[in-house]
Amino acid sequence: MATPPDAGSRPAVAQGSNATEHPLENGVQHQHTASNSEQAPAVKGKAKDANGTENKKKTAEGSKDGKPSGKELKEKSKAEKVARRAQQKQAQQGQPVVDLGPEKQGDKDARKQSLAGPDSNFPKTQHKRTGSTSTGGQKPMPFRPAQAHAPPIKEEPKKENKNVALFDHLYGNPRRSTVAGASRDVHPAVLALGLQIRNYVICGSSARCVATLLAFKRVIESYITPPQTSLPRHLTTHLSSQIDYLVSCRPLSISMGNAIRWLKVKISEVDISVEEFRAKADLCNAIDNFITEKIIVADQVITRRAVEKIKDGDLILTYAKSSIVQQVLVEAYRKGKQFKVIVVDSRPLFEGKNLARALAELGLDVQYSLTHGISHVMKDATKVFLGAHAMMSDGRLYSRVGTALVAMTAKEANVPVIVCCESVKYTERVALDSFVHNEIAPPEELIIHGEKSSPLSRWLEVPNLQLLNLMYDLTPAEYITMVIDESGYLPPSSVPFMQRLSTNT
Amino acid sequence: MPAATGVTAPSLTTFTRSVRSKGISVESSTDNLISLLKRRQIRGSQACAIATAYLLRRVVESVKVTDVGRLIERVQQVGQRLVSAQPRELAIGNIVRRVLGVIREEAEEDREGETSGYSDAGTDSRPHTPRNQDVRSPEHSTILSRSFTSSPLRHGEKDEQVEAPGQWGPQRPPLLTSHASYAVTNTAPTVTSMFSLLSQPISNFPSPTTSPGSQSPGIHQSLSSQTLSNITAAKDLKAEVVEGIQEILEELTQADDQIAGYALEHIHSNEVILTHTSSVTVQKFLLKAATKRKFTVIHAEAYPNNHEATHAAAVGNVRGDFDEDIGAEKFQKALTAAGVTVVLIPDSAVFALMSRINKVILGTHVVLANGGLVAAAGAKAIAKAAKVHATPVVVLSGVYKLSPVYPFDMDSLMENGDPSKVIGYDDGGFVDKVKIENPLFDYVPVELVNLYITNLGGHAPSYLHCIIDDHYRPEDIDLDKVDVY
């Protein structure tokens, strides 16, 4: 397996903060990839020529087949001329792309293998490994090592910018794939959490929120206030470095942001005169209470309310996987309601597959389809249950990409759309479109790995080709019939008021 | 199955090769095509249309034509078998209708020629038909009266002449002009006998006196009276019909390029265009526009039924091995190579991006008479999202995909695909417990479409029925109902 060459060979370099360390490391990798790619272009030209003539021959054959009329022939030759001209033009401009040299092939394969199946055995090994490496923070994580190669290729100045122009502001730094270069202050639990979140081992707004709070609880437990500072002052900055690390793995979810904001307020409220261990215990208690109140009990309340809305004979449609919707469906089934479920799913995460599997194993009647069949499955549905990543304060739903399509189709088919959302996911933010605020996942996730290599595996070499792997989209409030949160049933227009209430108390 | 398919997997190319070789009988070619259609080894509107046209050409060539009725009957028989073999490929029925239309038209032209030469025979042979007509429909009597009055000597009555074509639909004008040219030389009864031909469309109405067969006895009579001249006429007719089919075939192969010819009228520079699945028609259209304009294409991948072809098209279709039906002429230069920025997205991201998209350009499987269309699954949601964002939806379709069928029973046009494309069978536990749905097509209602571009130009969806009237004879529209006598 290809490991980042720079990381291992470097001994314990004096550890700066994140900010200084990153560019340095990237720079080294740039050089590597550059030297690799520069050897290829000569070969490429020839190959391209050969391809071109072959294609032309093919078209000629094709026309013979159909006994072409004079007009057809003329058109054909014209088309060929245009094609030839375009080819010449391209040759003059010089190909911006560089083919993969033979020596790089190995790298690519390695990347493919490593990408193929890290998820299944990941969480178990994860904990062990972080335990051993976290203190130093220098050894590279053994997972998805080739990922470390991929992002720098994108950023190479000579190379074409593969970012989708409309979303350029969202790209930022590529997601961190190793703990190498993490700040010394970052707690091992947080180190592990960051990678788990990054690899979708911990996925979903609530789950990420809970996991973050639990990790921060451990941070606080092992925290010792340095001399000449006070806990409320220093702990906040200490947490900030943890948060920076988490952000570098994957942008924070709205719920995480809300929870962290709440925690920071709690820390700043700590009385300096209180003994440190007491203050820490209080904070840990507060975190536990927060999780219980805002997530666990909230989920129970929402579940109870939502189950009331499921009637015998219903055909419930849901999209992707939401933990709260899963709880609702399971609870309704336990209560003996007779209903069926349609799970609609999408590429590339296929989260719905897990939901469908879990429900089917319980014994529910489950139907599974992908986004393309949405118009068909909606015909029979009687209710749509959706989870939320966040609710905007203008009543829009911010959720897994594709949710808007489902809600729109439901609206068209006059099927009520019910959103289950804990109030911790409310945000005061407003948004008009899915462009300004969103998250871009690594485009490599779109490449399909099967026995046959996907044509997309060489997308980086194709000029002008971009892959867009958007994480979320925004569902207009008019597609949502009802929101269920812990305070009751509300129309989406009431979300801002509830949001105000929940932040004020 | 004849052994003609050889080593290569049977496909459109092997079929067209086999259907042209004289060694294989028409019957076995028909059976061959039927089995190919049933096994979906020929699929897609264009492939089906081409195969049908080749087969029908062979059928027409092989029939020993003594009269037109027999020929029509033969083509109808073959056509019905093909249509029932794969009723969802409406293009097959379309081509059968077109061929029938060609035969009828040639026959009518022939008869006009005949009647001008042997006018007395014409008048003798059908004394009763015009009378029937007069009783039957007021429309006809007006036309008849018009036909009597519209000799070149009476140009004053312009209003009637203007009104008549509208009443009859666009397929009238050529016949009326030909009539006008003969009207001077012929007597009035000849004119009415010609209009007895025009009365044939009405024969679909339930009326005991006018079964669809009423045409052929009339022809028989005229044939028996002039056997000699008719044999040569029949030969001419056959040649002309074959030529007509040849023209249809040419149209089929050129349709995509003709549609692409309109590209520059519809795409402006710096535009952001969304398309879905890999349609050759759309690819050619965009490529043509790319020769002059710079724009961005957002390509929804149509997972799981067509994503491989879509990916291949985006990367640059080096091999067509994803779909054997793609003939050699369909090897495409990738859009990216033409300088167009292509952004590949999963289908789910369509709504999120729609607000920045200027146009949605869709390919289609079939277009129905009301202007609705059957396209790859997912198209409906895309079109609806476009409608919600007031983004125009443009559908590219060859005229051969225009079907005179109305979508009364949509489910009969839908098809479910291989569920293993959604979940592989290797995931056995999952497949056992969960019902998996993989629809192949979506019906997109007409109100979601803003514009159709066919090889004849751009049309409003409401105008499509006029094109259908132009291309199909009313008596051929219901292929199933035609009595085989």
From TrEMBL, chain A:
SUPFAM superfamilies: NagB/RpiA/CoA transferase-like. GO terms for molecular function: translation initiation factor activity. Residues 1-158 are annotated as: Disordered. The keyword Ribosomal protein does not apply. The keyword Protein biosynthesis applies. It is found in: Cytoplasm, Cytosol. It comes from the Eukaryota. It holds the Pfam family IF-2B. Residues 28-39 have a biased composition (Polar residues). Its main location: cytoplasm. GO terms for cellular component: cytosol. InterPro entries: IF-2B-related, IF_2B-like_C, NagB/RpiA_transferase-like. Residues 46-83, 101-112 have a biased composition (Basic and acidic residues). Belongs to the eIF-2B alpha/beta/delta subunits family. PANTHER family: TRANSLATION INITIATION FACTOR EIF-2B, TRANSLATION INITIATION FACTOR EIF-2B SUBUNIT DELTA. Component of the translation initiation factor 2B (eIF2B) complex which is a heterodecamer of two sets of five different subunits: alpha, beta, gamma, delta and epsilon. Subunits alpha, beta and delta comprise a regulatory subcomplex and subunits epsilon and gamma comprise a catalytic subcomplex. Within the complex, the hexameric regulatory complex resides at the center, with the two heterodimeric catalytic subcomplexes bound on opposite sides. This is Translation initiation factor eIF2B subunit delta. It comes from Cladonia borealis.
TrEMBL record, chain B:
It holds the Pfam family IF-2B. InterPro entries: eIF2B_beta_subunit, IF-2B-related, IF_2B-like_C, M1Pi_N, NagB/RpiA_transferase-like. This is Translation initiation factor eIF2B subunit beta. Residues 140-152 have a biased composition (Polar residues). The lineage of its organism: Eukaryota, Fungi, Dikarya, Ascomycota, Pezizomycotina. Belongs to the eIF-2B alpha/beta/delta subunits family. GO terms for cellular component: cytosol; eukaryotic translation initiation factor 2B complex. It is found in: Cytoplasm, Cytosol. Its main location: cytoplasm. The keyword Nucleotide-binding does not apply. Component of the translation initiation factor 2B (eIF2B) complex which is a heterodecamer of two sets of five different subunits: alpha, beta, gamma, delta and epsilon. Subunits alpha, beta and delta comprise a regulatory subcomplex and subunits epsilon and gamma comprise a catalytic subcomplex. Within the complex, the hexameric regulatory complex resides at the center, with the two heterodimeric catalytic subcomplexes bound on opposite sides. Keywords: Cytoplasm, Initiation factor, Protein biosynthesis. Transmembrane segments: none annotated. Residues 107-175 are annotated as: Disordered. Residues 123-139 have a biased composition (Basic and acidic residues). SUPFAM superfamilies: NagB/RpiA/CoA transferase-like. GO terms for molecular function: guanyl-nucleotide exchange factor activity; translation initiation factor activity.
